[in-house]
Amino acid sequence: MGMDTIETIMGRRSVRKFERKPIGDEDLHAIIEAGRQAPSAANRQPWHFVVVRNEELRRQLAEACSGQSWLADADAIVAGVGQPGVNEKWYSVDVAIAMQNMILAATALGYGTCWIGAFDRERVESLLGIPEDMRVVALTPIGVPADRPEPRPRRPLAEFASLDRYGRPLK
Q: Given 9, 53, 61, 133, which residue has the most CB atoms within 10 angstroms?
């Protein structure tokens, strides 16, 4: 039984330590399905997800992600790839929304993830055989967390939300 949506959002953490345990195929497919269900501009779904489970390839990807070697400890690394030719303006947002769906689904199923935006795009795309007309937008490891980080501080609501007009306090 998964958490409800708000609990899942509030409980999500950036996990950087993973146990060397496999993700069940059924869970992995549910996580990818959550990405497929994401909204996209004009429902164009300009995405492709490369799920990397090969240990050596995970190690090479971790190196291409600014040397973040801990990434390779997760059972899978998912690369969210977009198609700029489908919608140049929105493809990266659409991929980001789909990736967030997958991150929340993984959290609800008890797995850890971490948004990875620091990577050598050309190297990652070469490692994964990404066609020239597509772009990697972000990656996330998915695995059994070895620890549960404490919540990080968040700005107060009054600093980032307004009612009707910018700067008017939200009640």
A: 61
pLDDT in tens, the chain (171 residues): 456 999 999 999 999 999 999 999 999 999 999 999 999 999 999 999 999 999 999 999 999 999 999 999 999 999 999 999 999 999 999 999 999 999 999 999 999 999 999 999 999 999 999 999 999 999 999 999 999 889 999 999 999 999 999 999 988
Amino acid symbol at 62: A
Q: Are 116 and 53 in contact (CB under 8 A)?
A: no
Residue 151 lies in a domain: yes
What are the backbone dihedrals phi and psi of residue 135, each rounded to the nearest 5 degrees, phi first?
Answer: -135, 135
127 located within any domain: yes
16: domain CATH number? 3.40.109.10
Domain that holds residue 154: 5-159
The total of structural domains in the chain comes to 1
Q: Is the pTM of this model over 0.85?
A: yes
